[in-house]
Amino acid sequence: MNKEFAKMCYFARLETGLSVKNASSLLNICERQLNYYESGQKNIPDDIVAKMTKVYVNPELGYEYLRQTKTGKELALPAINMKGISSRTLQLRVCIKNVIDVLNELDIIACDDVIDQKEINNFLDCMKQIQLLSGACVGIRLFSPIKKSALTGTARISLITSS
């Protein structure tokens, strides 16, 4: 993976309120190994990312991990705004406006069921706006600010997230 993902794992653990000792115990790894993962010194195995996603009650970790894999890149998974719900909502509104702005162009391109050579750049620009909208929708849908504590199972509202 990369150092950004490692940092994301570190902040996810902190947001859950777990110490290195507690988290490593729940993840069934030694503290030193968790430190290596969170500092980006070692790649985090798939099974540990899956456990982190559950233990930290943080679906963003799993999504971002998959997005950075070869399969995730082939699926063209959209980037997600990892900031708070207000930022995600504003991003969604901006993306909706941008898609509305390109719909007329897309209608003109698609009306004959053919995308010819002179239309390809405009079509790709339209698709980029639609993909950004898709990412904004996923961000709102999947990543609610209401999270459960890994230790207590109680719900808490977390409007502060780290990037």
Structural description of this entry:
The model is unreliable at 152-163 (pLDDT under 50). The chain has a two-stranded antiparallel ribbon. The chain has 163 residues and is mostly helical. 64% of the residues lie in helices and 4% in strands. It is elongated. The chain contains 8 helices and 2 strands; from the N terminus they run ααααααααββ.
Helix/strand layout:
Layout: H1 3-16, H2 20-27, H3 31-39, H4 46-55, H5 59-68, H6 70-74, H7 85-110, H8 120-142, E1 146-148, E2 155-157
Antiparallel strand pairs: 1-2
Helix pairs in contact: 2-3, 4-5, 7-8
Comma- or semicolon-separated keywords:
two-stranded antiparallel sheet; mainly alpha; 64% helix; 163 residues; 2 strands; elongated; 4% strand
What proportion of the residues is helical, as a percent range? 55-70%
| Overall mean pLDDT | 83
Q: Secondary-structure element order, as H and E?
A: HHHHHHHHEE
Ends apart, CA distance between termini? 16 Å
